[in-house]
Write a structure and sequence with these properties.
Layout lengths: L22 E7 L16 H8 L6 E7 L10 H4 L9 H14 L8 E5 L2 H12 L5 E5 L4 H7 L5 E5 L1 E2 L2 E2 L1 H9 L3 H4 L6 E4 L13 H13 L3 E5 L24 H7 L13 E6 L11 E5 L1 H12 L7 H44 E5 L11 E6 L20 E4 L6 E6 L7 H19 L5 E2 L16 E6 L5 H18 L3
Helix pairs in contact: 3-11, 4-5, 4-10, 11-13
The structure holds pyridoxal-5'-phosphate.
The site of pyridoxal-5'-phosphate has 12 residues, from helix 4.
């Protein structure tokens, strides 16, 4: 099909002359639309207001893509809107390849990339391609529910592994694999792992290079393919520093910025056993439904065949728009955008955790802190009306009611709620208490995500453990974030006495 001059009567392609789009035009933000520096002198709120007030002063650039190419190799609707190769538009392939090479620096030479329609679909394609019905898949004990949902119809069975403040625990992984009992489990040892190492959904944990090496080595030993679903890679916000100790950010050059990011599994993958899923959802927009695999060429070929029988290829309009954006920005512009984007989310994360620090008494843990830049905090209630002397019964004011690991990446704060001292704990158990508290918070006008939905295996009423909520700071304005934490505090005060 690609041979120049070939007269192909073999396909069933509609004639591009009948496509009713003569050209498409886009107006895009310039890459330096958001600042690269935070100012510690500014109040937490002022940056938000700057963000909103600047919308009328946005600096933009425009692009137009016509139906037919002016020069060979140009993006053109004639090909972009035609049935195409599952591998995507050649220009997009080039941009993605350059990006992977410069940013993730894979550890072996002949890696391949292949576009997909977002990480959700990418993972579903992997499930259909490399798993047999009844195969187990190693997952974290708390996992993105859609990843589990994609496996269920294919009969793949989640095998949860314990986590700590850095995400999946290598100790727990080794134990699970070493002690694998085929007859008790009713399945052979898994050969696939699904993992979200940066800003994990739902726990917000981020894994450092050392842990990745440990897990990779175990996967080499037990022959496990690692599927790295990494939508939050560029939302690496760094360690949370309490407001009073915060200093201004220094600007990093491009290489220093890339070096500052926790490396991908690709960096340690000397055997080609990693399938990395990248998506434009969090760096450009989710509606684009565009991302890509990076993996060894054999896996890429199989995934390409699987794509041909489903989406065929990502949407042609999407490819035109995202490719035009990236060609306009160039590599340096996209890196500039990503740097600023990370900073935007950092400021949101800081502001949200500052709200918690105002509402609750946050005590940093002394036992498991500073893992991969994250600190765990125990939260207890602050006495609101201090003129009333606290009685012996007021344990709620001194005992932690919940803890959180201040995330160093992503969009989520994961709350672990300690229900043991609740008056109804012995009769209700933690699951019912989680639902009760979640309902009361919702009725007060704030919606958290209840922890149980992130368990890869069903949570029973008598399952021992703690309550959990996933709360997101990515998409609300400052008043809403502040109000949400205040409402949570008010509901919790009542709840501990119910
Ligand atoms: C872990 C994880 N994977 C995948 C996705 C979705 O990615 P995409 O929009 O590329 O399908 C999300 C986000 O919602 C996520 O948290």
């Amino acid at each position: 099909m690609n041979k120049p001059g070939l007269i192909s009567l073999a396909g069933g392609l509609p004639n591009a002359a009948y496509f009713p789009f003569a050209s498409v035009t886009g107006e895009i933000l310039v890459p330096d639309s958001f600042p690269l520096k935070t100012n510690s002198e500014e109040s937490s709120l002022s940056w938000f207001w700057k963000l909103f007030s600047r919308s009328d002063k946005e600096k933009t650039a425009t692009f137009t893509v016509g139906k037919y190419p002016k020069h060979s190799g140009d993006l053109a609707l004639e090909s972009a809107l035609q049935y195409g190769m599952a591998s995507g538009q050649p220009k997009l392939q080039e941009v993605i390849h350059e990006f992977v090479e410069k940013v993730y620096k894979p550890d072996y030479g002949n890696w391949a990339t292949l576009v997909h329609t977002g990480n959700t679909a990418g993972w579903a394609t992997v499930v259909q391609t490399i798993l047999n019905p009844g195969d187990g898949v190693i997952v974290s004990e708390w996992t993105y529910p859609s990843a589990i949902g994609a496996m269920q119809p294919y009969g793949s069975i989640p095998v949860p592994v314990g986590m700590d403040s850095e995400g999946m625990s290598s100790i727990s992984l080794r134990k699970t694999l070493a002690e694998w009992d085929e007859s008790a489990r009713g399945m052979s040892r898994p050969h696939v792992m699904y993992t979200v190492p940066i800003g994990q959904n739902p726990t917000g944990t981020t894994m450092g290079i050392q842990r990745k090496k440990e897990i990779y080595d175990i996967c080499v030993e037990y022959d496990i393919i690692i599927v790295e679903d990494d939508p939050y890679y560029f939302l690496q916000e760094g360690k949370y520093v309490p407001k009073s100790e915060r200093v201004s950010e220094t600007e990093l050059d491009d290489e220093a910025f890339i070096a500052s990011l926790a490396p991908s599994y690709l960096k340690v993958d000397y055997q080609g056993r990693v399938i990395r899923l990248d998506t434009f959802s969090k760096t450009v927009c989710p509606g684009a439904r565009l991302g890509w695999f990076t993996c060894n060429p054999m896996f890429a070929e199989r995934l390409e065949r699987a794509t041909e029988t489903s989406a065929q290829a990502p949407c042609g309009f999407t490819q035109v728009y995202v490719t035009s954006l990236l060609l306009n920005w160039r590599y340096a512009g996209y890196i500039r955008w990503l740097k600023a984007l990370g900073l935007q989310y950092k400021q949101r994360r800081d502001y949200f955790l500052d709200c918690f620090a105002e509402e609750f008494h946050l005590q940093p843990s002394t036992s498991m802190q500073d893992t991969a830049g994250a600190t765990m905090y125990y939260a207890s209630l602050k006495p609101k009306r201090t003129f009333i002397p606290l009685s012996e019964k007021d344990t709620a004011f001194s005992k932690p009611l919940f803890s959180l690991v201040a995330p160093s990446s992503g969009m989520f704060v994961w709350l672990t709620l300690y229900f043991e001292d609740h008056p109804s704990f012995s009769t209700m158990g933690y699951k019912a208490l989680e639902v009760k508290l979640w309902t009361e918070i919702a009725e007060a006008g704030v919606l958290f995500a209840p922890g149980a939905i992130f368990s890869p295996i069903p949570v029973e009423d008598d399952t021992p453990g703690n309550g959990h909520f996933r709360v997101s700071f990515s998409n609300s304005n400052p008043e809403e974030l502040k109000k949400a934490v205040t409402v949570f505090g008010a509901v919790l005060r009542k709840f501990v006495r119910e």
